[in-house]
Each structure stands twice: as structure tokens, then as C-alpha cells.
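A further point concerns the way the authors explain their paired sequence and structure data. An entry of this sort, consisting of the sequence and the corresponding C-alpha cells, reads as follows:
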Amino acid sequence: MDKNNLNIRLATLKDIETLFSLIKALADYEKLSHEVIGNIENLEKHLFGNPVYAEAIIAELDHKSVGFALFFTNYSTFLTKPGIYLEDLFVLPEYRRQGIGKTLLNFLIDLAKKRNFGRVEWSVLDWNKSAIDFYEKMGAKVLPDWRTCRVIIKNPPIFEEL
């Protein structure tokens, strides 16, 4: 890959269809396509509406979108600083091992530095050894003592009153 042909940039409204397509490709790769119940209209509203809930970065190689990162601001009470939570980082399988994922992650880290944020963090599936190896090679520490907790918001409420 000629690095001069790689462009990493913040996504714009014109990228919404491409982003949603890459999100579906990520779900397919993770064998989670059945969990994609959102839609392009909500994605557009949340990335480019008011308020903005998340941001995205696009990786283009030879003017073709081949990867993305979607992230949002979180907050560390211990650092008393905002940070970035990386929800998804994905490069199409046929474009991997060319430095695109590394460039996406470095772009995000540089963005956090420019914003004077305290850290960048994310989750990784425990079966995804290639991703874990990639993140550790980049200098990330995979925290073994932490587990993700999730409550899906739906009606009726999932918690019953005691």
C-alpha cells in the first residue's frame, strides 16, 4: 500500500451511507448481523444532528472507504478529564495488515491529545485474538479485571420494582 493514497478524516454527512454499510460489514465479520436493528436515519441524527452524540472517522484508500472508527466522549472521575470511548474500529478484511487500523487509532489518539483529553479506551471481544494482539502491539493495555455491563433500554422496563 502506498501510504500517500491513504486518507484518514472526520466523517461528514455525505459519508452516512458508507458508514452504515461499514457498520453492517463489521457486524457480519463479528457474526452479529442479527443485532443490527438500528437504521441509517438514527445514525445520521446522532452523528450530525443537535446534539451530536458520536463522531466517526473514515479511512479511504485510493478514494475508496475501507474502514472507520466511531467514538464518543466519556469522562474519567479519577483523571477529572474527558476522554474518548472508541465504540468501533473496523477495516474491511481484504485491506487489513496494511497499517490502516494503526493509522485510524493514531488519528484518534492525536485527536484526544488536541482536545486535552485524558485517555482513549474501548472494549474488545475476548475471542478476537488478532485484535487483542494488534492493540497490545500498539501499546494498549487489555484490562483483565474489567467486564462490560449492559442494560438494553426497552419497554416494558427490564428491571422490576422491588
Residues 100-114 form the longest helix (15 residues). The radius of gyration is 17 Å. The beta strands are 6-10, 55-61, 64-76, 81-91, 120-122.
